[in-house]
Amino acid sequence: MDERDMDDECLMPKDLGAIAFDMDGVLVASEREWERVFRGVLAEYGLELTDADRADLYGCSDEHENEVLSRAAGVTIEEMAASKNDYCERHPVDYGRVVIEGGREAIAHCHEVGLKVALASSSLAVDVARMLSETGLADSFDVVVTGDHVERAKPDPAIYLRAAELLGMEPARVVAVDDSSYGYSSAHEAGMGVIQFAHDGQPPVSPDVIAVCRDFDEVSVTVDTLLAAGE
2-29+96-229 has which fold? Predict the structure, then answer.
């Protein structure tokens, strides 16, 4: 675990009250599954996914996915949205197969130490609901916010701001656990501290994250450290 300077006030939550977890790349290792979807969709147009488009698609919203893929395929956004939805119906992401070990326990630990817990994802509500059902996490969160609940998804701060509102807390009392630059920007702009979840070994997305955690045990240790620092 790479912990940053806990004395840096701009990173520290003020009276930590809640943790907000991202979904893709944090609770489920679905980024590779979605890359499979993107490659499959473009293959039906006789195209391959480029490294640049792959990087642009990491951790983004459904709307941005359609924009990137439509540009690559040279079709309208509406046509691409229909093509992607059709492909997903035929080749769905199996969330139960890609659940990341330790997430349930880390969420339970947050509850045990008196924190509220939110799920804050740019994914569509239908995908989030299916993930919660297939992984058995449906009863784990106090609030759930998806890309459907806001006008602008990550990197806009709206998702994390909405999560804080539903939790009944100021954003400064909430720490986000996210894995992408889109998520970091969203939480940072919302006024939250960020724990970067680097399950796949991603390099730090920013020098301003509280810690870079490579598994959920490290997330729980960081949460405990933050609570102790606030006492």
Answer: Rossmann fold (3.40.50)
